Amino acid sequence: MSYKLVSIDMDGTLLNDEQFISKENIKKILQCIREEIDVVLATGRTFKSAQYYAKILNVNIPIIAYNGALIKQSVGENTIFSSKIQMEHVKRFLKLSEKYNMYTKVYIDDILYVAEESKEARKFSKEHRIEYRVVGKLSNQINSSPYMIVIKESEVRLDYFINRLKSEADLPISITMSTPNSLEIMAYNISKSNSLKILSHKMNVNNNLILTIGNSLNDYHMIKDAGLGIAMKNSDKKLLERWDIVSEHDNNEDGVAHILDKYVLKATATDIDVT
């Protein structure tokens, strides 16, 4: 099979545990582009955070950000698709998260909003290279539609809150998880998979010519719905319970490069300088 489009998750997939893209991964991605195979970054991160890594690659590629709520070109920032959560749903969700004292973060146009100053917010802002603002009670202070709302809690508390959300609010929203401790909320019918369908249709690429790579539950539909979907060796157990096409290498072992070599590329990229 000659794949024409490759969609790659970032955290735990393209990025190693030190939050870097390895030279080997860069080399193979650049070879894909040289062989006229389109590459897409598909992430739960903000656009700005993902764009930083696209700049390292030094290519103009589409970025699917916020788990599918936004698609933009990395250079020029042309918006291909955008969908924010309706304010009435935002308010109801935030009031419920406050009722159960859940640690909540709101993402509006590449800025992170939190109720209180915290070590987690400072650390996250630094690692993801985005601005954060402390605004007080979120249900009162958030007055613009966000791309995504995230709750960071223990698995037990998240399971409990999800049950409360379904029984008390029943909102028309999309729910996914990038880690067992991160519940992520987007507008209705938003996912990496659906945004990849929008993008591939625009690019005139048939679904069976798409290869996707991921490691978390928020990647499940993207890898399930593609022509070929591959989970990383280091994938979350909840993803591995649902998917059995798994790489032999993890994100610290150039896993993406190995996958591209095995399934996508035609030759060895010995002449690509990534220093």
Q: Which terms summarize this structure?
A:
275 residues; alpha/beta; Rossmann fold; Hypothetical Protein, Haloacid Dehalogenase-like Hydrolase, Chain: A, domain 2; seven-stranded mixed β-sheet; six-stranded mixed β-sheet; globular
Outline the structure in words.
This protein has 275 residues and is an alpha/beta fold. It has two domains: 5-82 and 190-263, Rossmann fold (3-Layer(aba) Sandwich); 87-187, Hypothetical Protein, Haloacid Dehalogenase-like Hydrolase, Chain: A, domain 2, CATH 3.30.1240. Helices cover 34% and strands 22% of the residues. The chain contains ten helices and 13 strands. The strands form two sheets. The chain has a seven-stranded mixed beta sheet with strand order 5-4-3-2-1-12-13, sandwiched between helices. A six-stranded mixed beta sheet has the order 8-7-6-9-11-10, with helices on both faces.
